[in-house]
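Exam revision sheet. Question 4 asks you to relate a sequence to its structure. Input first:
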Amino acid sequence: MKVLFLPDGSRSNPYQRELAEALKRHGVDVTLSDGIGRLPILGAIRARGKPDILHLHWTHGFLIASSRVKTVIKSLRFLFELLVVKFLGIKIVWTVHNLLEHERHHPQLELFFNRILVRLYDHLIVHCSFAREAVIQTYRLPDRSKAKISIIPHGHYINSYENKLSQEEARARMKLAKEDRVFLYLGQIRPYKGVLQLIDTFRKLESPQAKLVIAGKPANEAIEAAVKKRCRLDNRILTFLQFVPDREIQLYMNAADVAVFPYQDILTSGAALLAMSFGKPIIIPNIGCVPEIVDCQGGFLYDPSKEEGLLEALKQALGRDLATM
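Answer key, structure tokens:
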């Protein structure tokens, strides 16, 4: 069996690479592509060879453009390409990582086209029961289409990254003390991820031992400036505002006591599973697939609709035996 993954996100996330390697062990020939040419889907098929299955992952890049008119044109092109794919006898699978693009540039148009496209797909993959119900409701799937949704849990990242540094070595490199209680935000800094809220909330903690490490590349200059401005007000906050290469993941993870993901919108969180793969408890809102992958023994789940929800979770983490968690 030959499978083509689109788009290729493996340069910034090992999810697809790990999945491809696992499928290859079962005799599946997997190829990854970003798309090629003005008709990127068909261009990839022409360049890589006709697959048995086209496996789509993050589709918003094929749908969303800078304006509404361009978004309509881009989405119609995507629809046309998938119709040709179906005509060629290629099965289409979509793993639903997000219901809509996080930045919500043109949400109504994206939702409109996704409700059409989802009916073309031969199968859908989601990572939890909540996601299955959300897909059914959001895309208004009829009863006859529900059977084509499979729940396949998101894989872990144990051994996906180098993990040799001890906490003592990691903290020495980052000039953190043994007695510090280190909260970590790791990942690209985008508005929906709630980093600005995290900074403002952390500053309310009165503990001098509390430290907040923010490591990741800002999505744009505006959010970078906002992060820097807020962090200058509290010397307990350390920032590393650049892309974090794979070899450095262990540095930040092993220096930390707990990882924080103050997302405002989430369906599935690979970042949470990454932290758990490094043995870290997590602070994360109790939404999406989160309650199905972590409980109070391994993390601090909070209600994001409560004004003090994140603050209470941070305070709880200060008083718990995080190493045991």
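Marking note for examiners. The radius of gyration is 21 Å.
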